[in-house]
Design a protein that fits this description.
Structural class: alpha+beta
Order of helices and strands: EEEEEEEHEEEEEHEEHHHHEE
Number of helices: 6
Strand content: 25-35%
Distance between the termini: 29 Å
Helix content: 10-25%
Strand order of the largest sheet: 6-7-10-9-8-11
Largest sheet: 6 strands, antiparallel, barrel
Number of strands: 16
Length: about 325
């Protein structure tokens, strides 16, 4: 839901913008979209804050009073990023792992220190703004800048810390997607099913991280004036899944896991080199239709592409590794 990359809206359709704060904002900020959208929207918290009645001795179990709404109880795991404000007891970035009842939640990790005060509020950090189809516009518009200027809450006696988030939005005919998610990664490497960390519900975050890198590879290969949303994204599904598996295993290697004979990164690069040599569809006019000359585009269509991308000697011609 949050963190999608590249940020894309479909031309002529309503769209929801998501933003995740890194701390509790002092007030709901605005998101400002540049031209041609030229729209300003006030962001709304995805879920209302909860009132904290106590923090248990395990520093993970938190009791709320009154009970929190059912919709808020859905914000756990991957979407459970929150800010625990215990007043003089401290400010803590936390991840909600689960709710055991309408009044009790459990954090993914214990608080780093025992707070001097066990009462306060918990604020979910995801905000949103809805744009109508008219505000999005009917025309393709890439690299539309957006910004959120906000102030991070630092306590009742602190003026807060000004912060500024920004990014780019692409309004396109067909948003780019490889179709890869948690299940696709497990289809490739089933053993990863037992390795999901407690603070997550799936590998979706790592899938999103890998997508950023895949998009970067594609953008490096495409000539000026061509964009990822003009491609059939499913052509790069295996590249994406291999790279996601690489990032997952790299995270485990950092804490001592070893499986050196498996190199998903090299496999991903090899598969990318194969697919990028002939794109199944390059929708050069962004009309969402496969026109004559837009299928099976050969490598010769690229101008000023890094030659190293196309050197077969850089890769070993082997079948990508699949671990059962």
């Amino acid at each position: 839901m949050t963190g999608a990359y590249p940020m894309q809206a479909t031309a002529g359709a309503a769209w929801r913008f998501y933003w995740r704060a890194t701390a509790k904002p002092t007030a709901a900020p605005d998101v400002v979209f540049g031209a041609p959208l030229s729209v300003t929207k006030t962001l709304t918290p995805l879920r209302a804050a909860g009132t904290v009645a106590s923090v248990a001795a395990d520093l993970r179990t938190i009791t709320l009073n009154p009970a929190i709404g059912a919709s808020s109880r859905g914000l756990v795991g991957d979407e459970g990023a929150a800010w625990l404000d215990l007043g003089q007891g401290g400010q803590f970035p936390v991840r909600v792992a689960t709710f055991t009842s309408s009044t009790v939640l459990v954090l993914a990790e214990p608080l780093p220190t025992r707070p001097g005060n066990g009462t306060g509020t918990i604020h979910w950090l995801t905000y949103y703004a809805n744009l109508t189809s008219g505000e999005v516009g009917a025309d393709v518009a890439r690299r539309v800048p957006w910004r959120v200027q906000w102030t991070a809450y630092e306590g009742a006696d602190h003026q807060g810390e000004p912060r500024h988030d920004q990014g780019l939005l692409d309004v396109v005919t067909t948003p780019f997607s490889t179709g890869v998610g948690h299940e696709a990664v497990l289809d490739l490497v089933p053993m990863l099913a037992d390795m999901v960390p407690a603070r997550q519900r799936s590998w979706e975050r790592q899938v999103q991280i890998a997508l950023r890198e895949v998009v970067g590879w594609i953008e490096e290969a495409l000539p000026r004036g061509r964009f990822v949303d003009q491609l059939a994204g499913d052509q790069f599904a295996l590249v994406h899944a291999l790279l996601a598996a690489h990032h997952i295993l790299q995270g485990h290697r950092s804490v001592g896991y070893r499986r050196d004979e498996v190199d998903f990164y090299a496999d991903a690069k090899l598969e990318f080199a194969r697919q990028a040599k002939r794109l199944r569809w390059l929708d050069g006019n962004s009309d969402g239709v496969v026109d004559e000359g837009e299928t099976d585009v050969p490598a010769g269509a690229y101008a000023a592409v890094p030659t190293s991308l196309w050197q077969e000697s850089d890769y070993t011609d082997t079948t990508p590794t699949v671990v059962r």
